[in-house]
Amino acid sequence: MHRIDPATEAFVAHRNLLFTVAYEMLGRRPESYVGPWLPEPLLTAPDVAEDVELADSVSMAVLRVLETLGPTERAVFVLREVFDLPYGEIADAVGKTQAAVRQIARRARARVVAHRSRGVVSAAETREALAAFQHAVETGNPEALLDILAPGVALVTDGGGVVQAALAPVVGVERVAQVLTGIPATASLRPAHVNGSPALVLWYGDAIDTVLSVRIDDGLITEICAVRNPAKLSGMERETRLR
């Protein structure tokens, strides 16, 4: 019987963890990207949403915060926060002094904590808001949308210059509602779990057109992230296991 070498065995055992870490560190915005940039959505299992810490670590919001960090900041943050490596080892890995690494880690952590200080919304609350949102869009009811959207809601669309999308966020409840009520009746919205949180997927026939994730504060949707770039939708073809 062929024996798997120790390195391969270790890789297989930690494949899901390594994928999660790599996903958090890589795949960042190209300098020439057209329009708003959003992380690539991943189809995840429903139970990920119940693991608050894991779901938050791969959420669209946190990944967008990490995207604002430079490569060294991002590497330091992940090596320290995910792997809990000593500052000395991280310093050797990134070619910095321990003092510099401590400062980098502190700054990076502060940015992520600033996001988390707004509070983590439960999966149940997100599902409830999305159900109301879906009903309002499917019925073309602008009044119902006004009830679930915050006054300063922003709609961020990522088309990557490949498909039609706004080149800047659409801001304001009336403007966002106008865009959403313009979705054709031939499209269908289906619930899914994306990046560890409840979300909606817009389908035309048997093809995914847009992945919609939301941010909720005080029971109202304050931001809608719509990924339309076809190059980013491959992660919705099959469920990605995270840990």
Automatic annotation (TrEMBL):
Keyword Transcription in record: yes
Domain RNA polymerase sigma factor 70 region 4 type: 60-111
InterPro entries: ECF_Sigma-70_Domain, NTF2-like_dom_sf, RNA_pol_sigma70_r4_t2, RNA_pol_sigma_r3/r4-like, WH-like_DNA-bd_sf
Pfam families in the record: Sigma70_r4_2
Keywords: Sigma factor, Transcription, Transcription regulation
Keyword check for Transcription regulation: yes
Family: Belongs to the sigma-70 factor family. ECF subfamily.
Name of the protein described by the UniProt record: RNA polymerase subunit sigma-24
Species name: Solirubrobacter deserti
